[in-house]
């Protein structure tokens, strides 16, 4: 009896597999970041640079796993090491210390909470993929039913969670607000309308940069009340007012700038077009609209964080991330002119246009 054999050709791969390794271990990087935040490693190192033994003694943790965690943090450029002495990087000092206006700590706390509830587990993601329904816990069910995070939490009267969500957004929003506000000339405008303004970070950034501006922050209760606490922290109560507002039913107060940050990605194109037209109809001639979003490229193939957020948003909230082209077309369809797209901080951009 003869046996046929198939010859397998050995061929060297034409591409490097480094990106796959990065993806396989990406979750470890996030968990190490959350753990380091939870044990207060960053403020501890902010006091002074320390050796491994000093870190372990001060935080009452064990050397072997701590050495591994520090190696990950160094590779992520959050910690620096020289002659076996560890210190914070400038990245960590800017975003991971409570003294920074761009502090990401509350967002990390929210990520720890989400992880403990397994909202983004493999099984929940797979279920959402095949059923087009959000993960099966009460919070995410309310999100699917009401299509807006704060609205869902408000209906559930979960004040603690609302405060947690708003606080988690504040530091990253402040970081972005201090950048985009320098990219556009608002010197001839008077009233900055911050629609769905959350913690008030963008109003704070805008009026701090442009002394001619007064701001009105519009949001649901109790969000705008929480925003008042952040506004008071910067002593800007005389320049930023807050107002209860339902974006579907209420008319906009008089203003010559309409600003939306991270609002459009929560909604379908049809609902975004509703906001766009409503702003166009409300603004005076020469009035300006500014959209602040993380944008897809025109092919909608990346960048990776935007694609990942798009998947999460579309599965859990029914919204989507948009490209600059898509948002520009919405503005054009509503009647806006002089449409510009300006890259801002990290993955954020602003899309701005004027009413003729």
Strand content: 5-15%
Query: Reading side by side through the largest sheet, how are the strands ordered?
Result: 6-5-4-7-8-10-9
Output the radius of gyration. 23 Å
Q: Estimate the mean pLDDT confidence.
A: 87
Shape by Cα distribution: globular
Q: What is the number of helical segments per DSSP (H or I, 4+ residues)?
A: 16
Uncertain segments are 136-150, 152-156
Description:
The chain is an alpha/beta fold and 356 residues long. The protein has two domains: 25-100, Winged helix-like DNA-binding domain superfamily/Winged helix DNA-binding domain (Arc Repressor Mutant, subunit A); 106-354, Vaccinia Virus protein VP39 (Rossmann fold, 3-Layer(aba) Sandwich), CATH 3.40.50. The protein is 48% helix and 15% strand. The radius of gyration is 23 Å and the shape is globular. Mean pLDDT is 87; it is low at 136-150 and 152-156.
Features:
356 residues, seven-stranded mixed β-sheet, three-stranded antiparallel β-sheet, 2 domains, alpha/beta, 48% helix, Rossmann fold
């Amino acid at each position: 009896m003869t046996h046929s054999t198939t010859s397998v050709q050995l061929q060297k791969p034409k591409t490097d597999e480094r990106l796959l390794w990065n993806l396989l271990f990406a979750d470890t990087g996030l968990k190490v970041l959350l753990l380091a935040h939870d044990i207060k490693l960053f403020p501890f190192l902010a006091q002074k640079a320390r050796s491994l033994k000093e870190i372990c003694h001060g935080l009452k943790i064990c050397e072997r796993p701590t050495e591994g965690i520090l190696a990950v943090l160094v590779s992520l450029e959050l910690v620096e090491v020289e002659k076996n002495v560890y210190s914070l990087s400038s990245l960590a000092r800017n975003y991971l210390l409570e003294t920074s206006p761009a502090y990401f700590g509350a967002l990390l706390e929210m990520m720890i909470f989400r992880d403990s509830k397994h909202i983004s587990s493999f099984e929940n993601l797979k279920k959402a993929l095949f059923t087009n329904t959000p993960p099966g816990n009460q919070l995410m069910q309310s999100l699917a039913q009401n299509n807006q995070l704060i609205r869902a939490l408000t209906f559930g009267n979960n004040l603690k969670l609302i405060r947690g969500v708003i606080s988690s957004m504040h530091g990253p929003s402040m970081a972005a607000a201090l950048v985009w506000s320098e990219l556009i000339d608002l010197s001839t405008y008077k009233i900055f309308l911050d629609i769905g303004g959350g913690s008030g970070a963008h109003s704070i950034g805008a009026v701090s940069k442009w002394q001619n501006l007064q701001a009105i922050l519009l949001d649901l209760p109790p969000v705008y009340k929480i925003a008042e606490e952040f506004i008071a922290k910067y002593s800007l109560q005389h320049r930023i007012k807050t107002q209860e507002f339902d974006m579907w039913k209420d008319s906009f107060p008089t203003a010559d700038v309409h600003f939306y940050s991270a609002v459009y990605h929560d909604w379908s194109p049809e609902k975004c077009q509703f906001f766009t037209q409503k702003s166009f109809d409300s603004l005076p001639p020469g009035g300006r609209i500014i959209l602040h979003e993380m944008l897809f490229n025109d092919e909608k193939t990346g960048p990776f964080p935007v694609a990942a957020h798009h998947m999460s948003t579309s599965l859990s909230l029914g919204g989507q991330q948009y490209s600059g082209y898509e948002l520009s077309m919405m503005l054009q369809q509503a009647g806006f002119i002089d449409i510009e797209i300006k890259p801002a901080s990290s993955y954020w951009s602003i899309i701005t246009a004027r009413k003729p």
